[in-house]
Amino acid sequence: MKKVCEMSVKEAIWLSSTGSRGDNSFMNLLGFHDRIGVRMLNRFFSMVCLLAGALSLPGADAKLPLGTSLLDIKLPEPLAKTAFVASDALRGKKALVFFFMEPQCPVCQNYVPSIKRMGVRFQESGVAWAAIDTTYGITADEIASHAKDLGLSIPLLQDKGLALTQKLGVDRIPCVLVADAGGKIRYRGRIDDQFSPGIMRKSPSTKELVDALDAVIEGREVETSWTKTAGCLVTHHGKAKKAKEGAPTWAGEVASIIQAKCQGCHRPGEAGPFPLTSLKETLAWTDMIREVIGNKTMPPWHADSTPGHFVNDRRLTEKEIQTLTDWIDSDCPEGDLSKAPANPVFNPGWRMGKPDEIFRMGEAVKVPTHYLFGAVGMPYQYILGEGEISEDRWVKAIEVRPDQRAQIHHIIVFVIPPGEKFPDFLAKGERRSNPDKFGAMMLGAYVPGDFPIIFPKGAAKKLLKGSKLLFEMHYTPNGKAVVDRSSVGVQYQSEAPIHEIRTRAILNNRFRIPPGDGNHEVRSLTRFDKPAVIISYSPHMHVRGKDFTMDLLTPEKTRTTLLRVPHYDFNWQESYNLGKFLHIPAGYFVECIAHFDNSKENPANPDPKKEVRWGNMTWEEMMIGFVDYYYLPTPQ
């Protein structure tokens, strides 16, 4: 009896972007790894991508392609202008694999190295391969360019109008079809379970495509002939129509929403894996947009907070969600395009304004197309900045600026104090009695979608003469090799501020999470000995992180919730910037409460059978609540 592989809903959720999980050997000194995640969006989604509920749509006849003969179907023309005929491709072969893909889909990008490896593995077994691009409205030249970036050498077909994609029931990509020597489709579904939205296993625990090919080559029945796929939802629609009466239009309402809430990341050179800077570009992703705004995974925001409480809240309003949904459900009417708002002019330079000083990485880093054939993530790179701080400085604004945004998941810039060396200073920071711990050594960070750090008037961070900067670089190769030399810009103020900004790491590094525990609690606590003002919060855990809360406690232990992240997402670790700063009297505490899921129900869990302790690797864990704050002057 044919088995149908069922993927759990949790496994199919996009913890947002999408990429490989790399470990590095240095950070056990500090115990600080993957503060943001490991491919949020393959930049974004690790940065990135807009994929959250990534299961196949249940309404279609999922078994339709099984038994269909490719010899009876008209196939698209390949980009090389040479006719692709299934019978010719199968001549002398035992099987033909169709790899349905979209070059800008991060899950597809992750699977390209796997397809290449399988091509080599089955080369002597008589297997032919072809890729089918499902991108809506893309040109042949654009597809060829993407294929070159990804290093695809197999025949590439452009499915214009998505006729073949619809006929064969392909709703999400990547998706593979396997036909036998007679052209009969024997398998349809996923490649394996190594990659799915937000999940990147070191190796797959299933091998559906390999098993299907082995069965077809050996003349056996394919045991698992159909599986659901997890990835990018294919958009099926025609040209945008004229507006129906009362329906939202691109020109009237929709363009302004996309510009305000999406284009900050979804534009060329930014972290979004595909641009949304025009009607044409948006049409290619409308079904995906409907899904992720409906389940509120995009724009990313994880704090349970009232609108306006945090000034960097990215969420769409309910009215904006309804407008976009109504527009898509009305088949995306254009409206009067002559009245459509022009895209905002994004400053290609420094968003905070001209820096007073710029510190670049002391050397460039070559980022490959894929690291170790995509089997693991690229280890963190630690690069000293050029020069050193020439004199004591007060920093009022900080902007960490990535050179190659599409290949960078996050950057953290540390300050090496005068007389200290890398990496010793980080280990000392962990041991010393300073209540800020290693938070005292953090200057600034970059994550996709974040804004420059601009401290409130009268507040600044101190840089001591002789200090050096250290760049922690988390690269996420996405199929295109680049050379990166990122930088950080700072603005100074000439006089000492009223308030000195500090960063405190409220951590617990003594926990032990039992094997299989799906809700293990860990707490950390800090006491403010002086009156203080907190301006932002930032929780940090690894892949077993489940939820995170920060509470304010009085000396009598009366509790008030400051931050609640009910569904912690390793790939989207925001800083939450307060609209109204929090004043803390002397003697008050901030307590962090985190829960971890070390069970087999957590698809990101590297090994539910092992006890987990503090450590830098993704298979280890951390528990930190960061706060930016300043002390209030002591009354005389």
Structure description:
With 636 residues, the protein is an alpha+beta fold. The chain folds into four domains: 55-230, 3-Layer(aba) Sandwich (Glutaredoxin), CATH 3.40.30; 250-339, no CATH class; 357-499, Jelly Rolls (Sandwich), CATH 2.60.120; 503-631, Sandwich (Jelly Rolls), CATH 2.60.120.230. Strands 12, 15, 18, 19, 22 and 23 form a six-stranded mixed beta sheet that branches. Strands 4-3-2-6-7 form a five-stranded mixed beta sheet. A four-stranded antiparallel beta sheet has the order 14-20-16-17, with no helix packed on it. A hairpin with a 4-residue loop joins β6 (175-180) and β7. α7 crosses α10 and α9 runs antiparallel to α10. The longest helix has 16 residues, at 106-121. The N and C termini lie far apart (83 Å). Mean pLDDT is 82; it is low at 1-62.
Attribute tags:
single chain, 636 residues, alpha+beta, Glutaredoxin, Jelly Rolls, 4 domains, five-stranded mixed sheet, 27% strand, globular, disordered N terminus
In short:
With 636 residues, the chain is an alpha+beta fold. The protein folds into four domains: 55-230, Glutaredoxin, CATH 3.40.30.10; 250-339, no CATH class; 357-499, Sandwich (Jelly Rolls), CATH 2.60.120; 503-631, Jelly Rolls, CATH 2.60.120.230. It is built from eleven helices and 33 strands.
